[in-house]
Design brief:
disordered N terminus, 432 residues, alpha/beta, globular, Spore Coat Polysaccharide Biosynthesis Protein SpsA, Chain A, ten-stranded mixed sheet, 15 helices, 16 strands, two-stranded antiparallel sheet
């Protein structure tokens, strides 16, 4: 003790108080407690979310029909998907027909230039519908993409036809989106013809070439108790990421924040998805299956009938593009009045293995606890520290330049437009 007292008398000598080490220990324990609290809060939150998802996904005891009987016009495009049509798509449509009632449906299918056995499988499907007395129009078109390109190829030195632009590859190329918009409108011809004769349908069910179930389609039709301008499923090609990033926009009009759950930047869209509501508010979606009221498509004023379209060629030539499946919601007069919704309880895929993964049996949640916990934090961090402002700036500058070229240049579908080009090629399509 005498040595310590003597040392303490030396000028400049300090003895670290014991309370400093205690303070560090206390702070360390506080940090550990905070981390433990965050871990436990995240764990129990993820557990509750997972249980809610599993509960709300639980299939009904019986094969329910929509809450009211409706007449449904089913429209579909097919191209090179013979196995899917044979093994999954056609059987599901037949189940759906039986659930809705054979007299309550009309099926319009347009197949364009497949080189596999798609035509054979659709012909067999047509025969099955005929045996059931179901009204339908199955069009098998022999015109391939190569035929389309050759038929519309502009002559050298001549003005480009509609749907063609000069691309960054320094040549004239045919745009993909106007081509798809035309095909989708072809699936609606019978709807328009029937409307002109006084026959009306309540809703249109647009079916992509996806693996789905009849019960899933019925659930989608009853989204938000059947009140909507559009209701979409969730689609996947890989179980961990959703597929249709081109058309999906959250309630603020933003593109997806993450390709995995919970997807959205906008708080309202994300909160509804986390709650696993059947009506997640968005501005645009497509995602494999879409239900829409038929009324806007069969307006008595033919020039006002809702149709699929693309952005103008002059705008697309600035390396901008928009999905026809997004623009349809922009043009739909019911979108603001009734709302566009994503229904996460209906999940479809382009692969049967992926379908099994996102639609697990035995009442399990399709999202794991780890995916929920990681998704919540990753989405939160990205929402805090990232922005789409730079990408938006590029698009806005090009659109402003285009608008200044002519007073007639006007495009209401800004939320759909991205910095991208898509052209048709003989075996599909390419980015440019």
């Amino acid at each position: 003790m005498a040595r310590i007292a003597a040392a303490a008398a030396i000028p400049g000598y300090r003895i670290a108080p014991r309370r400093r080490s205690l303070r560090r220990l206390f702070r360390s324990r506080i940090a550990h407690l905070i981390l433990l609290f965050l871990f436990l809060a995240t764990f129990f939150n993820a557990l509750c979310i997972q249980r809610r998802i599993a509960h709300l996904d639980r299939p009904p005891a019986a094969f329910d029909v929509p809450r009211k009987q409706e007449r449904i016009y089913i429209a579909a495009l097919h191209w090179n998907d013979a196995a899917l049509v044979r093994d999954y798509w056609a059987p599901a449509v037949l189940d759906l027909v039986e659930a809705l009632g054979r007299d309550n449906v009309f099926i319009s299918v347009y197949e364009s230039g497949s080189w596999d056995e798609t035509k054979v499988e659709l012909a067999a499907f047509d025969a099955q519908l005929a045996a059931r007395g179901v009204r339908r129009n199955i069009v098998l078109d022999n015109s391939t993409h190569q035929d389309e390109l050759q038929r519309n190829m502009p002559a050298e030195g001549q003005p480009l036809p509609e749907g063609w632009i000069e691309t960054s590859r320094a040549r004239a190329e045919m745009r993909r989106i106007p081509f798809l918009a035309r095909l989708r409108n072809l699936t609606l011809r019978d709807l328009w013809d029937l409307a002109d004769k006084g026959e009306r349908y309540d809703k249109i069910l647009f079916l992509n070439d996806v693996v789905f179930s009849a019960q899933g389609a019925l659930t989608l039709l009853d989204t938000n108790r059947g009140i909507y301008a559009a209701a979409c499923s969730l689609d996947f090609s890989d179980p961990s990421v959703f597929y249709d990033t081109f058309a999906l926009r959250d309630i603020r009009g933003d593109v997806h924040l993450t390709a995995s759950w919970p997807f959205f930047r906008a708080r309202a869209s994300r909160a509804a998805l986390v709650a696993h509501d059947d009506a997640v508010p968005v501005q645009s979606c497509w995602n494999g299956i879409v239900a829409m009221p038929a009324a806007p498509f069969i307006s008595s004023a033919k020039h006002k009938r809702l149709q699929f379209r693309a952005i103008p060629d002059s705008l697309a030539s600035l390396h901008l593009e928009a999905s026809e499946c997004c623009l349809i919601h922009v043009d739909n007069p019911l979108s603001r009045e009734l709302g566009v919704y994503l229904n996460p309880r209906v999940r479809v895929t382009y692969d049967p293995n992926a379908y099994a993964a996102v639609n697990p049996a035995h009442g399990a949640s399709w999202v794991s606890m780890w995916a929920i916990a990681k998704g919540l934090w990753w989405n939160r961090l990205l929402a805090w520290f990232t922005t789409d402002a730079l990408q938006d700036l590029v698009v806005d500058r090009r659109m402003k330049s285009w608008q200044e070229q002519s007073d007639s240049h006007h495009e209401p579908g800004r939320i759909c437009i991205i910095n991208e080009g898509q052209v048709l090629v003989w075996n599909g399509w390419n980015h440019v």
